[in-house]
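ingest -> validate -> predict -> emit
validate: passed (alphabet ok, no gaps, 454 aa)
predict: started
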Amino acid sequence: MIRFASLAAVPVSLVIAGCAFAADQPALKGADAFGDWRADKPGVRRLIRPEDLPKPYVSKSASNSAGLADMPAGAKPQLPPGFSAELIASGIANPRVVRVAPNGDLFVADSDANQVRIYRLAKGGAKPVENGIFAGNLNQPYGIAFYPPGNDPQWVYVANSDSVVRYAYRKGDLKASGDPETIVDNIPSNHHWTRDIVFSPDGKTLFLSVGSGSNVAEDMDKEPDDGIEAWARSKPLGATWGPEDGRADVLAFDPDGKNGRIVATGLRNCSGMTVQPATGALWCVVNERDALGDNVPSEYATTVREGAFYGWPWYYIGNNEDPRHKGERPDLAGKATIPDVLIQAHSAPLGIAFYDRNLPTGSGFPADYKGDAFVALHGSWNRGNRTGYKVVRLLFKDGKPTGEYEDFITGFVVSKGEVWGRPVGVAVASDGALIVTEDGNGTIWRVTYDGDRS
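emit:
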């Protein structure tokens, strides 16, 4: 059961949902965008551009993990005016990815408990009328996907740290009826272990993200056995070797796990993936490297382009060379794809979901949210003053990102040294509510809008 702390030492702003903040304020730019948790509140916008990034080592690399506090009694996430949050569940070991089945059931990866949980909510509310364990005996499950896409899936796919398995499924099943079938195996699982999965809109391709096995390929030999030139000729642009072979990549497979291939490289740790409904494009959010300073390099959200190289470990955010690999890959200079939306360094983005449901008139979020995306920021450890610990909204116009992002849910930080919540998963429910998981106190929240939708 969740533990609650006294409110006596907690700032009042922490526990009030729906506080009034200025809307449509100008985005913070340049150095002003590199704030920390003290400046966070719903409505604050940031625009970070590649040219804004400081040089490496301008600030010292900090080891500054947050202490975990009990959830204050009565605390709720802090939200923009007109929004409110209700608690769905608490006391979960490690709630991570949340995905919504076509019938509205919530599937939640409880990674430390090695199981996938399921919640069926009362209509229009946050109270579960049914809940249980859909599947257990897994290995750090994370990504969840339904196949085929649409209203009548026949399988639930689950990404373990070292494999992808699937369970036979019929709409409304609260428990897996049979043993798992292994679809992809032998995935390297050390270091970054969060494996997300998503299907292409036509159901023909299963995408799988595999993070790196290190911070910046410290254990990778300077050159592959046959030399860099031979390697580069035979492999995708920016492919790594040795202990990093097949890592820091987004991979693709047929639904049965066959015909595996590399889609894109240089994505240090793509911990969350989704498909943009308006365009069918694959998106991922990436945790970039550590130990170059407080504000470098930016984390990011980006479309995953076929054949693209995103820089890791030799370059970052375009043609910025990592000083720890200086001069090693001049052949890759100028070839790294610049991501679409830059997010403050060390924020640790883990989940992404587009708000693009077709909802009945008078329900869901205001109209200007349609087509935007939500990203869960788990929070920093490698920064002098902490950042993250919130859910942000990526702004889009005509299906394209503007580059700006806006604080949407804050209030998880208790003090300079402690937090009670670390957001991980985001998903849009069938009724338009936003579902959010956080693994600091093991809670799941349902966020709704009750104000003017015009």
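The CA atoms of residues 394 and 405 lie 4 Å apart.
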